[in-house]
Amino acid sequence: MSRVALVTGGSRGIGASISLALKAAGYKVAANYAGNDEAAAKFTAETGIPTYKWSVADYDACVAGIARVEADLGPVEVLVNNAGITRDSMFHKMTREQWQEVMETNLNGLFNMTHPLWTGMRDRKFGRVINISSINGQKGQAGQANYSAAKAGDLGFTKALAQEGARAGITVNAICPGYIGTEMVMAVPEKVRDSIIAQIPVGRLGQPEEIARCVVFLAADDAGFITGSTLTANGGQFFV
Ligand code: CAA
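Above: inputs. Below: predicted complex with acetoacetyl-coenzyme A.
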């Protein structure tokens, strides 16, 4: 029987590619999204992947949303914490709102989504939690004190939880994408973006599919010995 995978932020950008790749690999996929109804409806119409609306920043909404997914598809065995936002600003101009919004989604969202699923994964003795962090959680990025802090936090969460899940057959891993050609990166001012691309040894932005293949790799049943790891896919821009 095919396993159920839930992808947060799964109807756009990297998340959409992850949802599609997991479906192609035989999973029953649910894609969560927070705001863009039009994009979600289009995604479902084009792919047949059901979309579910709630904010990962809201714990109660996560509990209710997960219950809907599980009622429709069955217990979630693969969780991909992909949803993320940017509120870029140099620190001296950064507002508390910009700090907090990024923390709520990019860091607290991992607690809000993983916690309600954790007991079920432990009971069933199987689980895959895959957290989409970022190159900027590894190296830091000027203009992203909030985002870099949250994404670095995601790596600490991954490593701690991997230790707790290991005996229960649950792996917890992180992927650190570099700069991928999504709306998020295209929103960076062109001049800044060009200077970033110049720092990528492969000479181009990554593609969402190049992150999705990392997820499929880590989600597999026979990836059970890989846990607590950070898989980087950044075109050679930064080595840990
Ligand atoms: N290091 C140090 N100083 C820098 C800098 C850097 N990399 N970049 C800019 N500065 C300085 C500038 O020189 C300038 O200094 P002065 O005022 O003394 O001249 C000052 O910071 C302000 O720079 P800007 O004119 O660029 O300021 P701004 O307010 O117009 O824009 C910004 C600031 C919004 C942060 C903009 O620089 C920006 O968008 N930067 C890109 C940040 C980035 O890489 N975001 C990644 C988004 S994609 C993503 O997050 C996905 C992922 O995981 C990779």
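DSSP finds nine helices and seven strands in the chain.
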